Amino acid sequence: MQILTCPAQLQRLEAALRSSLPRALPVYGAVLNINRGNPGDFEVVVDAWPDFGAVLARRRGEAPVNDSYRSLNSAFYRDVGAYRALLESPGCLRWDAAFHIFGLQDGVVTVSQDIALAKGVELEVTEYYTYLHPDPSTLSEPQLDPDVQLGALSPAHVELLDSTWPYGGNTWSRRYLHELLQRFPHLCLQGPAGDLLCWVLSDGFGAGAHGYTVPAQRRRGLMRALTIMAARRAHARGFPVYGHTATGNRGMHRLQEELGHRRLPGLCRFVLHNPGLARAEL
Questions:
Q1: Burial, 95: exposed, middle or buried (Cβ in 10 Å; 0-12, 13-18, 19+)?
Q2: Which residues, including other chains, have CB under 8 Å from residue 268's CB and lie 6 or more apart?
Q3: Example GO molecular function term (predicted)?
Q4: Which of 91, 109, 226, 249 stands 20 to 30 A from 137 (CA)?
Q5: Residues 222-264: pLDDT tens digits?
Q6: pLDDT for 153 beyond 60
Q7: Would you call 176 helix, strand, or coil by DSSP?
């Protein structure tokens, strides 16, 4: 196991991951952020260098044992055996803590299942569709209604964001959302009085994150407009335009497909290790 810290190594890794898109998207997005100032304080771990067979992207430092939001790892492998060896390497993961691993390859689940069975660790798997836009430059900047303006979110909005997020409702989720607002691009639409109408966030893996339109403002095309704006801005920064959508969220599936996003084959799976710990409060 090796943590890559040299800028030249990280640039070389970025190029290698780019050649493995779209399967490498979750790690590639994190490496893009690392190589552009590292606003999320991330690091990447490989099984070997330069001929790596597996890589994890994650936050630096140690998180509390029950904070699975901070302990979020994205994975990509060229060889599933190398991936298994990396996860079993001393110091790679805390198997007595709550943490997520996610990725677009089947081995992300099966390797965790095999190791967890041997260690007596419980797992929960959540599945998403991943959408990727092949050419965001084709998206035209939308025109907003006169009573709608583009704005920015602040820490004062965290409680509202948390209450409207299916994965919110606890101390760790609020801290996570607060950090997203501080560290990564986000957009919102506001009414004449500055009231929030709609918002979209992005995360440390370069993906679209929490998006929401308040119920009274739906069917106005606000999420459509904001999705386009966020896509154009991500593309201008050199990032892929992608995100993970719940398999049952048909409205968001339809919107993304109308805008030209393509659903990638298979599923993105988020594997939560030690879910009982993750639900323990401070």
A1: middle
A2: 26, 102, 103, 104, 127, 128, 129, 130, 244
A3: glycine N-acyltransferase activity
A4: 249
A5: 999 999 999 999 999 999 999 999 999 999 999 999 999 999 9
A6: yes
A7: helix
Task: Enumerate the CATH 3.40.630.30 domain ranges in the chain, comma separated.
Answer: 136-263
Question: How many Cβ atoms are within 10 Å of 134's Cβ, its own excluded?
Answer: 11
* Rounded Cα gap, residues 65 and 99, in angstroms: 8
If pLDDT is split at 50, 70 and 90, which confidence band does 282 have?
A: very low
C-alpha distances in Å from residue 78, one per residue of 47, 52, 75, 264? 11, 8, 10, 18
Structure tokens at 171: 């101390």
2-127+267-278, CATH topology level: Aminopeptidase (3.40.630)
Mean pLDDT confidence for 163-176 = 95
- pTM score, whole prediction: 0.95
Beta pairing partners, 58: 43
CATH entry, 136-263, from 1.10.10.10, 3.40.630.30, 3.20.20.450, 3.90.1150.10: 3.40.630.30
Q: How far apart are the C-alpha atoms of 29 and 80, rounded to whole Å? A: 21
**Which residues, 6+ apart, have CB-to-CB distance to 265 below 8 Å?**
none
